[in-house]
Design brief:
This protein has 286 residues and is mainly alpha-helical. The chain has a single domain, classed as Rhodopsin 7-helix transmembrane proteins (Rhopdopsin 7-helix transmembrane proteins), CATH 1.20.1070.10. It has 9 helices and 4 strands, in the order βααβββααααααα. It starts with 8 loop residues before the first strand and ends with a helix.
Length: 286
């Protein structure tokens, strides 16, 4: 194994009780959120027309996969730490925190997020196939290019992490551009009830996805890497630990919003576009 590079996980910096619990609690909240969203999406399929049920099925799969992986992430976080003998904080237990669980989740769920969005738009089959192919390839490249930088743990190699992050940003921004453009272009062909929701979907994608590079940057500063490697001085260790905690919390919040929150939005769009819903609202209005 190359020094400063771990395929499966990394050591973690010393944390205060508050920092450790903040991350542990957000992981627990993420597991509950993903699980609840999965139940809601699977049970809500009966409330939309048949052509939109595949979108909800895929959306339910996304949060189910995320629920499992965050359950594993939470346990890995717990195993990576122990309460310091002197009290007042948590120190590494000797077990590496497994960074791969999150990337294993993303390699499965990010392409599926593209599928659920395209499915609910109900584009022409040829256009949908072309769009989905481009988005899935870009998503795979984004994740594959980001992971080598994520697992660098040598503070002397932080510039390499920046390079990998920059390379990953190319397909990242391409995805955002394509999604924004396609959602905008599709508005005129969508039912009036769904247009506002699709406008909200554009903003949700833009805002929530922007959190990921910010979290990536927080966990990749020289101070954060030095704190993980145990080579930081006292002042830098505090800054580094804060960066690592910010990365974990940032990723978790972004995942909850981009998967569970976006899944509920997909349901609302599907319901707004369903004939049975449109007819019911017209009947009620009459």
């Amino acid at each position: 194994m190359i020094e400063g590079f771990s395929l499966l996980g990394s050591a973690m910096p010393d944390l205060s009780v508050f920092q450790y619990n903040a991350v542990a609690n957000i992981f627990s909240m993420t597991v509950a959120t993903m699980g609840a969203a999965a139940l809601f999406l699977f049970m809500s399929r009966a409330h939309v027309d048949a052509e939109y049920r595949p979108a909800l099925l895929v959306s339910g799969l996304v949060v189910s996969i995320a629920c499992y992986h965050y359950f594993m992430i939470r346990h890995s976080w717990h195993d990576a730490y122990k309460l310091a003998e002197t009290g007042g904080g948590y120190v590494g237990s000797g077990a590496a925190f497994n960074d791969f669980y999150r990337y294993a989740d993303w390699i499965l769920t990010v392409p599926l997020l593209m599928v659920e969005l395209v499915a609910v738009l109900r584009l022409h089959p040829s256009k949908a196939t072309s769009l989905l192919t481009r988005l899935v390839i870009a998503a795979a490249l984004m994740i594959a290019l980001g992971y080598p930088g994520e697992v660098i743990s040598d503070p002397a190699r932080w510039q390499e992490r920046v390079i990998w992050g920059g390379l990953s940003s190319i397909p990242f921004f391409y995805i955002l551009y394509v999604l924004w453009t396609e959602l905008t272009n599709s508005l005129s062909s969508q039912p009036p009830a769904a247009r506002k929701l699709l406008e909200i979907a554009r903003l949700v994608i833009l805002i929530t996805w922007a959190v990921y590079p910010i979290a990536y940057a927080l966990g990749g500063t020289p101070e954060a890497l030095a704190a993980k490697a145990g080579t930081a001085n006292a002042a830098n260790a505090i800054v580094g630990a804060t960066g690592v905690v910010g990365l974990q919390i940032g990723y978790a919040i972004a995942d909850m919003t981009a998967k569970a929150g976006f899944g509920v939005l997909i349901y609302l769009i599907a319901r707004a576009k369903s004939t049975k819903t449109a007819l019911g609202e017209a009947y009620a209005a009459a």
